[in-house]
Amino acid sequence: MSQKIADPTPDLYRSVANPAVRDRSRRIFFPNRRALRYQGLMTEQTRAPHILVVDDHREIRDAVTRYLEKNGMRASAARDVAEMDAHLKAGRFDLVVLDVMMPGEDGLSAARRLASSGGPPVLMLSALGEDTDRIVGLEVGADDYLVKPFNPRELLARVKAILRRSERPEPLAGQLGGRKLGFAGWTLDTDTRALTHEDGRAVSLTTAEFKLLTAFLERPRFVLSRDQLLDITSGRTADVFDRTIDNQVSRLRRKIEDDPGNPQIIATIRSGGYSLAADVREAT
Length: 284
Fold this sequence. Notes:
By secondary structure, this protein is of the alpha/beta class. About 40% of the residues lie in helices and about 15% in strands. It contains 11 helices and 12 strands. A 5-stranded parallel β-sheet has the order 2-1-3-4-5, sandwiched between helices. Strand 3, helix 6 and strand 4 form a beta-alpha-beta unit. Helix 9 packs across helix 11 (about 245-255). The chain is elongated. The model is unreliable at about 1-45, about 170-175 and about 235-240 (pLDDT under 50).
């Protein structure tokens, strides 16, 4: 991961990278702000979502920020994770579009930090398109994963889908709101999302993990298929990768199971899905 793998230039940006057609490409893809305002494509600065684009490839970085601005968003750019951290410290961002392969700290490490610290949602970009690469990206906490080269309209659609999910009011606990529930030695406060063990351990849950755990707690010892879990936790609001639920279950198991390789709390049901193999009780 330390060696930089050259990313293929996305099809959208080939004309931008070619000096012979750069001026024409700018007119096609990147109208100026004054023109955008005239066409009604830009929203008020205080209301437009603010996106941080992190990519060491300058042409891609500039093209993505310009395209997002063209479609009514504010966009800032960073060439590496260090610059990303400086931007996040200085202001609020609604989403980070994050390249995987970069010099210095890589995107996977940065996405893991953001997820564990409650940072903004992350859309990962990568030239690595194998299933295992996508799975790793989602396992470290990314909200979505897009392979280069990509269609800019797909990028925009995925950005909007993530923003819709993050802006939605989130009681998230369904019928369990306002309650403390005990299971298998753990206690979950559904209001504060605090998860503690009887031995004193405290575990931080991401939004996705909290949604998944409450789905199980509402239906103890009931077999839930992957499709059912996707419907419960995300409502099918986005183009969800097939292994999303498996990745989320794996992350949750690492936090609550004594032996994640031999799970006793969240059981895998062959050809079925998953089930909470524990009783749920009211806790004080």
